[in-house]
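Recap quiz, item 2
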Amino acid sequence: MIRKELVAASAEPLVLALLARGESYGYAIMQEVKARSAGQLNWTDGMLYPVLHRMEHRGLIKSRWGESETGRKRKYYSLKKDGKAAMAKHHEHWTLIHGVLSGLRKEQYV
Amino acid sequence: MFNLEQAIAEWRQQMLAAGIQTPVPLEELENHLREEVEQQTAMGLTPPAAFPIAVERVGQGNLLGAEFKKAGGVDRARLCQAANYFCALLLGVYVLVSLFAMSRNNLSRDEWWLGLAAQGSLLGLIYFVWTAGPRFFPLVRSGRVQSAFGLLGGISGAVWLMAFARLVLPRFDFNTGQLVVAVLWAMVPTILLPLTAFRMLDKSESQRRAAR
């Protein structure tokens, strides 16, 4: 299981990257993250919503109320221009960290 | 006998007691809870077995409440966006009103051109401040300095207009057409000064957001 600090730090870039593929809603975002990480990224489901609201306050994403297939009200989120810029920045930072780690690891085996 | 609706109503009460507000975010959390129950029952669990699992997944009210509190606050991004639209609307109204004033005051051909040049200069300068301006503005991080800039920008426009009305206008004996043209030119800095200050704040705000 991944440490909770890392899970928290990865929440925003993951949400941004998921929303970059198109509009989505809380439950679907959560299911997608769980499926893609084979359950390793284990959020408390409800904690996704404060993250989404914070991102909306910061102008990274926007929301609208729509309807689910069963007619229930559902809040859909989508990416804004600032969100795309933030995603690019996250990607750059995570790639850098990954590069540094991989480089150090390779050196150990040389 | 287990009643899902009753169980959800009780869960809602607990959430409200923990400070989760309705309709947002409680409705959203309730939807999540319902979807999780549906998912669990689709996988073969009975509703009485699925419900506590879904409740646990959604999380404890007091912890969620604390996180939602942190997520709140003044929505500055939306305020800035609303202010942008408001400025554009005001500008549109100003251009229409001044064109109306020009058409109603028997302006000569030259005065018409001068009046239109004032409008064109204003719109051109605003376009420049909006698009290229942010490259030249300093980044203001402090909230107080930001407020000071905003205040100064707003006041400077008004001060210039007052100075124009009290000091410049009395020195000339304008006819109506000339007066309209002079006022149109005087309006250029009156509008541009506060707008420049606002654009500068807008830039600082968006950079502050991006940096978080």
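Residues 76-211 of chain B form one domain.
Chain B is about 80% helix and 0% strand.
End of item.
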